[in-house]
Amino acid sequence: MSVDEKFVETVSENKTDEMADVLKEFGIEAHYKPASDNGLDLIEYDVSKLNDLIVGEKYIGRPVLTDVLTEEFEDKYTGETTVNHRLELVLIDDSEMEAYICKVNLKEAKDVWENVHEKSGLYKLAMGLMELRYTGISQYYNALDVVNIKSLQKQVARFETMTIKVTEESFTRDDGSNQSYNSFVIVGGKLSE
Question: For residues 55, 60, 62 and 63, what is the CA-based torsion angle, rounded to 10 degrees?
Answer without folding.
Answer: 30
